[in-house]
Write a structure and sequence with these properties.
The protein is an alpha/beta fold. It has one domain: P-loop containing nucleotide triphosphate hydrolases (Rossmann fold, 3-Layer(aba) Sandwich). Helix content is 45%, strand content 16%. It is globular and about 50 Å long. The two termini are 31 Å apart.
């Protein structure tokens, strides 16, 4: 497939997803989750989708769940490593995320706070509240977003799927710059991230909860897929 054809495939998917979001009732703000495995392309899709929707005239806010890790997350990850279960239970500040983002948007507040904790520097982000005009679409990317206790909030849920080897290959390329060794990245993904994602996917079945699944194994040619092909 030519580069032009691949770009058209991705543009078509973005247009289809944007059209679906634009059909959501514009009288109230809407919450959209983009979940999936590490390195699945969640942030990239969320950014592109937000731009696409904004260009069509709908107000959009962007939020990343990675800005809601708890204080000390960086040091716990390094010095007292999480287990898959402890990461699932305590790797994110779920209560603060709900208080600052989910509840305000869902229950009609005129503003929300889209970022809480800078885990890289282990400091709070400057307190900044964003206006939430009527009809705003808030697009949020991150793992664990389709946990059962959050599903009542989402107006639309997108699951990005990649296989384990693709996840590891992308992570090794992406993370080596700050980890320093592809071997360390690969070991971490095989011993921690695969078990963590497996725990989440077998416990909460996020693929079945999602409104749509996208196979993003080739980010240039993402495709809508049958969720039954990936469950389990």
């Amino acid at each position: 497939m030519s580069n032009q054809a691949m770009k058209r495939v991705r543009a078509d998917l973005l247009d289809d997803l944007s059209a679906t979001l634009l059909e959501l009732n514009a009288e109230q703000p809407k919450l959209v989750a983009i979940d999936g495995r590490s390195a699945a392309g969640k942030t990239t899709l969320a950014d592109e989708l937000a731009l696409n929707v904004r260009l069509r005239g709908r107000p959009v806010l962007r939020c990343s769940f990675d800005d809601f890790h708890p204080p000390g997350h960086k040091y716990r990850s390094r010095e007292r490593p999480y287990t898959p279960l402890s990461y699932y239970e305590a790797g994110y500040d779920y209560a603060t995320f709900q208080t600052y983002v989910l509840d305000p948007v869902r229950y009609g507040s005129t503003r929300c706070r889209l970022a809480h904790w800078d885990s890289f520097n282990d400091v709070a982000f400057p307190e900044q509240w964003s206006d939430v005009p009527r009809g705003t679409i808030v697009i949020i990317d991150g793992i664990f977003l389709l946990r059962p206790e959050f599903r009542q909030y989402w107006d639309y849920m997108i699951w990005l799927q990649i296989d384990w080897e693709t996840m590891i290959e992308r992570a090794a390329s992406r993370d080596v710059a700050w980890v320093g060794s592809a071997e360390v990245v690969i070991h971490r993904y095989r011993t921690f991230w695969i078990p963590t994602h497996t725990l989440y996917e077998t416990k909460d079945h996020p693929t079945f909860a999602s409104n749509v699944m996208v196979d993003n194994s080739d980010p240039e040619t993402p495709t809508l897929v049958n969720r039954n092909a990936f469950e389990g």
